Structures are given as C-alpha cells and as structure tokens.
Amino acid sequence: MALVYFVNPQDCFLEKKGDRAPLGLGYLCSWTKKLGHQARIIDLNHASQEDLLRDVLTEQPTHICFSVSTPNYTQCIELAQKIRAMSPAKLIAGGNHVTDLPNEIPTLESFDYIIVGEGEQIMHDVLEGRAKIGINIGKSILDVDSIPMPDYDELDMNKYTMTINGKPGAIVITSRGCLYNCSYCGSSKIKKWRGRTPQNVIEEMKVLHDKWGKRGFYFADDIFSKDKKRTIELCESIARHFNPEEITIRLTTRADLLDEEILIAMKKCGVDIISLGCESGNDEILRAIHKGMTVQQNKDCIELCHKHSIKVKGFFIIGLPGETEQTIKNTVQFVKDTSIDFADFYPLTPYPGTQIWNKPERYGLEIDKPVNNDWNNYYQVGIGGAQNILFKHPNLSSEQILEAIRWAKQETQLAGMTS
Q1: Which string of DSSP letters, residue by residue, matches 71-128?
Q2: How many CB atoms lie within 10 A of CB 189?
Q3: d(CA 384, CA 381)
Q4: CB neighbour class for 58 (10 Å; exposed up to 12, middle 13-18, buried from 19)
Q5: Which of 60, 77, 116, 171 has its CA 20 to 30 A from that of 177?
Q6: Are strands 391-392 and 167-172 parallel, antiparallel or unpaired?
Q7: Which of 358, 344, 313, 27 is nearest to 185 (CA)?
Q8: Among candidates 68, 91, 80, 84, which has minimal Cα distance to 10?
Q9: pTM of the entire predicted model
Q10: What pLDDT is attached to residue 70?
C-alpha cells in the first residue's frame, strides 16, 4: 500500500492566500484512497515547509505529488530538490504549468513523473507501476460521476475562510472542460466538456452544507450552463434540497449560454451573482481573440440577468490584441451603459499553453518570456493589487496599459470581487 502526499505550494503572490481549498488535490486524494492507498494533503498556505519536511522524514511517504501553477513553479522545483536529497519517495508534478510546459529542464530533472492533463488515470498508473518515468499524458474521464468528491475531511474545510456574498463558502466544480477557442485562455485546450449529474452535485453540496457549515457555493466551471437541460434540472434539484433564502450561489458561464428560462431556474435556487468573461466592449477585439460572441450579446445578457434580480460580475482584459486607447474607452463605456454590478480589470497575461503564447506574432504581440525558468511574476493580480505587463504591445506601452486599468477603475467606480 502506498502513502501519497499531495502538496499545494504556498500562493505567495496572493493577497488572500489559503482562503479556498485546492480542489484538484482534493479530487486526487479521494481517488487515491478509492484505489486502496493512503493519502494526505499538505497545503503550504496552512502549514510550513518545515512541517512538510519533518513529516517526510517521520512518515516516509512513497510518493509526493505537487500541484504546479505558473507563479509557484520555482517554489515547487526548490522544494522537490530538498525532498529528493532526503527521501527516496517518487516525485510527481501535475497542474496547469507542467501540462502546458512539460519539457522544462528543471521539471525533467526534479520529478520522476510529469502528468500532462487530468491526473486521475495517470495517478492510477503510477501507483500500479504502469506509468513511465518522465512525461505521461492523462486521459479525460468521460463519466465524471465516477470520480469521488474532493476529500473534504483531509482538506479540513474549517481552514478555508472564503466568503460568497457574505456567507461562508466553497468552490464546487460541476463540470470539466471547455468547448470554446479563446486565444488568451488555457482552458481552450480541453475540448471535452463533461457535466456531473444533478444528484452527484447535490451530494457534494450537502456535505459542505451539513458537515462544514457552508452557505455559499461558487460553481467555478468554465461554462456552467453549457447543457441547458442539465442546468435547469440541477437548479430545480438545489431548490428542492436547500432553502434558497439560506444559501447564496455564484457561478461562471458565457452570456450566449444563458436565456430567460435558465435565469428563472437559477434565481429560484439561490443564484445571486453570475460572472461573465466580457473581456472587451469592442467587437473587433472580441473577434481578434476568437471569443465567438458580440458586445450586444453581453449587453443583452446583463440586462436579462438584472430583469431577474441577479447581479453580474464582469471580467475585462486590457491590452488584448488590437487594443487601442479608443477600444479601452469602448470597454469603459460598456461598463457604464450596462450598469454591471462588479467589474475586474486585468492586464493580458500570456500564459503558457494559450494561443497567444504559442503564436504571439499572429496577434501582433511580443512576449517577455522568463529568463532561467523564473515564473514568479506570472500572475494576473498580486498582493496590494500588483500587476505585471509581460509582453510588448504595438499600440500601447506597459505604462499605458497599467494607467488604463487605473483609469477604468476610477471611471467606473466599481469594485471587483475575488470571492
């Protein structure tokens, strides 16, 4: 029987680090236990590296798996090297960053197994001795109901202080994958969309509600409402099992995946806030990034949400391909015209694995790629609102992009909403 440690690095760049549970590791932990092995989650937002290294020595785990995001890449490499020097455990790397850039030399030198894509099947192969040393390509599990819910006992949800609309909350993922092709987004690689059944989602919500006292739920799927029938059935099931006056729900989707029938069902089950990736108030920009939507569609959706007393939070990116001072003004005017309730303005971050990263010249951009695999500055927003411009734009300087974000916030007088 194996003993697997799942390690979540400290999110040093975040203002509210550790306020939400690392669900990816929660899923892998429950999956590993389902296979008959022992497993632990060590979240370094709530434990120290010294605690982890001490436990490695005393408990002698057979495998240690790291969740590697782009801004914590260096931390993962350094920690893996420390563990390598003191333990014979097999070291595993998974997560967005190594999925997008599996061939970086530090990665290949520091880890025995590198998981590209979804991790459950590869973890099974690793534990059964079938995985090859080096890069392993994960296969998507089509029946997502077969994956047990995150191991909330191992996570200990009392540690996570996220609030949603003022209530103690938790993130729930009700589907996997995205079918769209947005050039700035890493999710566009995962073309198989798979939704959990309403009953399966309700079981997880009950655990969070009854055992952990959560009253806020954030459905953080890329496209929550992709399947209209499933969406309405899930909303109706939530309304039957929970008191909509007691809970609050926030979710993320696309404007073209909402209609009046869906919004009526959402409001009845407690949905108070919908997050939309509006990105820009200019149609030429939306076409340039392959958004597959129009400004008018976003406007109509926001109006329809407001008709049903659902607030809207919009995501907007400044510095997209084709951006000018005029298109930025279009975006700010869009925010004003729609009376959107919350707005977050970010600079474009050219993450590895996106179309913009892979072929920046196609979009008229030049990416400032990191030197010596130093990814510490690759994040959208950091402590104190810190933002980094990681590319050269033909129409705007880095200073102009940052100033435009400050101006947009001041002009719209809208707060963002990170939880």
Answers
A1: TTHHHHHHHHHHHHTT---EEEEESHHHHH-TT-HHHHHH-SEEEES--HHHHHHHHT
A2: 15
A3: 8
A4: exposed
A5: 77
A6: unpaired
A7: 358
A8: 68
A9: 0.94
A10: 93
